[in-house]
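Model it.
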Amino acid sequence: MNLSYWEIKSWLTNIDYTIVGSGIVGLNCALQLKKRFPKSNVLVLEKGVLPQGASTKNAGFACFGSLSEIIDDLKSHSEEEIIQLVKKRIDGLQLMRQNLGDKTIDYYQFGGYELFSNNDDLLEECLVQKEKINTLLKPFFKKDVYSLKENVFQFQDIKTNYIFNQFEGQIDTGKMMEALLHKTQMQGIKILNNITVKSFSEGLNDVKVKTNQFEFSASKLLIATNGFASQLLNENVKPARAQVLITKPIKNLHIKGTFHLDKGYYYFRNIKNRILLGGGRNLDFKAEETTELNQTDLIQNKLEDLLKKTILTHIPFEIDYRWSGIMGVGNQKKAIVKQINNNVFCGVRLGGMGVAIGSLVGKELADLV
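Modeled.
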């Protein structure tokens, strides 16, 4: 790359902290570092034009786990681990709302609904465990989180009862990231886009960073690339693609709140009288273990089928946009926030809970330094 003396001097010299990834984690990490070290020189590198992974691609669910998801997680996590996971999600959501303000991010607590297909026994399993999970979560909410309600929506092939979570909210993902980017730049933190970090090597007192455009050194390197982490790190984190679509506006759309179906593998909500619907990763886990930001016929057809046969039966609709995002998952739900070498740190594997825990993981990553 043809860089001038001015460019090298102003953007790539005396860097105290370089953060890879300008998503929720990366920007919260940058803000926390600047707060702790006001005179420090902080540089954020982002491989996309906009934050590339899931931060600007997600459905905007401000949630901490549907009942069936928590029951499912209890099969591979202890009760104490589940309590800690949920606590982090609650704290993370609080931190995001506190940092950015409910009005700025369009935060609304309309509640969340878990729906159950007519042909499975998941509701029965949830009802057996509901009281136990409510008891586990009571210290945080002081009330029962999950309650049984009768289906007031006109969804087809769905059981007449659903599980309601009064504490679930929703946000505008675009507004959240816009506010975070604005806040970061106001603090004098530099963000360079279209820069892919190819590799890094550690010297005695610094880290040499090689990108697709230039090479430079930084005192500390913090990696916040979540689903793309395996391209730079040898950690237990795999990419998981989430495919999404949104309809054109629909008149008199009487659907309000956030909805989960099939253990949370499908999710939808009303955004300005459009239905945003995502999921279907469980149709082909292997194929969706990818960092390719495209869509497949298998999943897109299933999503359209769900719209036609379950969500918007007898209501004509047109698809306006389709997209996908990349999450970071592993065999455990706990995020990986740790020191890797003397001057290299990471905060990755958000397990599909980036909106909930991203702000907190970013802060924890900065606090490692």
